Batch of 4 targets.
Target 1
Amino acid sequence: MQLVATEMRAGNIIVYNGQLHRVLQVIHVTPGNWRGMVQCKLRNLKTGNQLEHRFRSEDRVEKASLDTHEMQYLYSDPSGNHFMNTETFEQLSLTDEVLGDSKGFLLPDTVITVDFYDSQPVGLELPNTVVLQVVETDPPLKGATAAGGSKPAKLETGVTVAVPQFIDTGTKIVVDTRTGEYVSRA
């Protein structure tokens, strides 16, 4: 499917120089008496490298046609991270490179959306928030409130996030998967 450059939006996956790129940022620029252009920040899905490119407003780009499937996370072992398609029950193993930072928010039985291009997984989308348990943190301070600063806390998946002073070991918290930040107690 062809898009005019001005129709691109953040989150789109396009084919640029023969490789898949995720559009991270789009800025439409109209400098004075020049023609308009679209300044884009792109991330190569294969290498992870980011680049900036300026398209003319009338340029056409190819939007990748992706298949999306709901997948359930099963477990991880040295051979990879194993998922099951919730419709066909087929199992799939994804590498740590495909998962990226998302691995720190996955617990068994978590359902995610995986994007496929030519039957190859190219990206995934987590739920916006997940509930994880704090396994290691400093003891809470007496009389601490949410406005009293933060401290690091290690979660059950191994990821570390900043939490308010009143959070104790064993507390379940809600974490935003897009930013990796503490949201609230569960």
Target 2
Amino acid sequence: MSDLEKYIAKRKKRSSRFAKNYENDYEAFEFSVILRQAREQSGITQEVVAKRLGTKKSAISRIENHAEDIRLSTLDKYARAVGKKLRIELVG
């Protein structure tokens, strides 16, 4: 276990609020990485995605860096812009 992992584990034990926020924020971060990787694997830039969505590069950057609050319709457009298909799944 790395020093960072040890620190996070200690903080989670000390603070239930930290533990809850950490999990939520980590999921959003992880999703942001998935979006960026999909774009990069498609070989296109944020500028190209922005043009396809009729928006600015800064909006695409916000989507890729702060994916915790993104509309499904925007996410679907983003997916199509990078040559992917959006699939939503509920898991237990």
Target 3
Amino acid sequence: MRVAFQGERGAYSEEAVVARWGAAAEPVPCPYLDSVFDAVEGGGAEVGLVPVENTIEGSVLRTFDLLYERSLSAQGETILRVRHCLVANPGVELGDVRVVYSHPQALGQSRAYLEGLGAELVATHDTAGSVRMIKERGLMEAAAVASRRAAEHHGMAVLAEGIETHRENYTRFLVVGRGDSPPTGNDKTSVAFITRHEPGALARALNVLAEAGVNMTKIESRPQPGRPWQYIFFVDLEGHREAANVRAALDQLGGCTVSLKLLGSYPAAYFSYFSGLLRP
């Protein structure tokens, strides 16, 4: 099965693909998140795997925009423990590093270590791509924040490992494709809605969920294009859209909002704070 992901070989998204599907997946690298959706919509991949939030740096906002704008639905989720490495050309020592390149999320997740290093931080499009770049340019005063997988793929040296600010550094990914998944008994439903621009509109919408006994696990707001200072609300709910209480809540939610888009129902990844990810 072809699975599109954002980044180059060795990216954390590729690692998440392998963690979820193993040898059954053929990872398809894409330069941008938009390209992942393009690949699936155009038939270049059966599904895509896109990051949606990180426990240190928060939501990946472009993913929310694409879920709202595009035709694909969320079909599943995967949680990856992210362990950052400082990667450099062979022969480079830690004291040589003057510049560190990586994706903004990776730089942010490793902020405490990198500030102690005293190097200039330069944002790039991809973690693994940063490793490739410093290798191709032969940079001997530079390093990249990336995975051990990326270092091994490019034959690079790992100067330090586990440099993330918090050990509890996890990224949640969504599987995106056509259609959603049948109920499993342990599901989530993701929706996006726009409320009327009036006092109490959001409170009324959220109260619908409470009255139906539906637990909300996440809420995020994004600007509504063309409507300054008005917002689209993204909400994750416990339960499948076919469950009686979720179905009733969605029916009522549709009646008290300007628009409502179902982004998908899918099996929830089981996660324990104390033991980490137990299964996808």
Target 4
Amino acid sequence: MATDTLSIDITATADGSVQLFALAGSLDLATSPSLRSALLTAAEGEKHEIVVDLRQLEFLDSTGLGALIGAHKRASEHDGSVRLVASEGQILRLLRITGLLDVFAVYPTVEAAIANDARLVGL
């Protein structure tokens, strides 16, 4: 079972146009408030293009999804976007089941997300 820890590594592309949030661990009731705060701050700042790498997440619940959706809405209000990176497995399956592949731009790699190319589509 996943533990209630979340590692968030925040970097920016060389030109500063995209902020990258690489997540590892569990994004759940205990850990989502810190991510929500960081994402909302980024969505309101000058860099509205945000990429969230979910490939190292072990667990994602509805509160974690809520943090991502809230950031997506805030970035959209500021003419920005939140793009997700997910590989085949539990997290991508959850995004499919909840219909969020139709809401978020989801990519197989960080490079594809930054380039806004090769988006995965809902099946």
